[in-house]
Amino acid sequence: MALHRVAFLAFDGMKMLDVSGPAEVFAEANALGARYSLHYASPSGEPVHTSIGTRLSVDSTAAELDADTVVVSGGDPLVTEPIPSDLTEAVRQLRARAPRLVSICTGSFVLAAAGLLAGHRATTHWRHARLLARAYPDIHVEPDSLFVEDRGVFTSAGVTAGIDLALFLVERDHGPDLARHVARSLVMFMQRPGGQSQFSAPLTVSAPRTPTLRAVTDLVSAQPAQEHSADSLAALVGVSPRHLTRLFNAELGTTPARFVERVRLDHAKAMLDAGHSVAESARAAGFGSPETLRRTFVARLGVSPSHYRDRFATTHTGLRRPR
Length: 323
Known about the structure:
alpha/beta, seven-stranded mixed beta sheet, 14 helices
């Protein structure tokens, strides 16, 4: 079995789990028969300080390291501060010699700044997907995907999704049997159910500039269970349904119906988070029936309402209490 070199590009402020999580997957694969060699580089070759305050030593500079797979982690500074030019140059140098390029979480912003995602499909943490799409309009951002592959470039959603992606790469390299053993050993799914929309925060909408539109969005958000067709909303504010639709598209980039559904979905998620039943949540959010709520959940989130509630309502379900 050929040796596969994996290089992690490190930098100050990087998210530690973005490195340690995927690295543990590759290390576990080695214990089960794979041959990954793990290396760590920084632009200068100097140690870096991670998000949890630990100091991470590296093997070399990026210019000195050859690899088959390059992994670029995320970090909070990548979306709040200019990305250092030495970091983008380092990833370009590594990419020139590596057939496979991977970013975890907001590491996609490093790839984008280096020009390596232009014309590609990609994803990132749900909280920053809109920023990535706005800052780099030549990237097709898929905000709900846990990870995306496009022509040898792999991008993942937030933090733990990097572990899912690493397992996918192990399966790509060594087949499903070895990957399944790794997943069982690390107590993780082979494929996590649903996309990252399950984890996203409730819809937040800046107050529309148009008073008419603001009145509509405020009403829907405050009373999602009411009848909110385009006709009824338009009549409420004294405009035509066509004009209201134009306002929604111009300011919010959506339609009245999609906005209402998203608000209702967020309300239902909050009800389920609080421990309410599927029927109660469907009624309070304005879905009319549990079946309508179920269809919407599966279509938008990839899981049923009951499965969502089981995962997010409490951490106690995995605790076995003594009898």
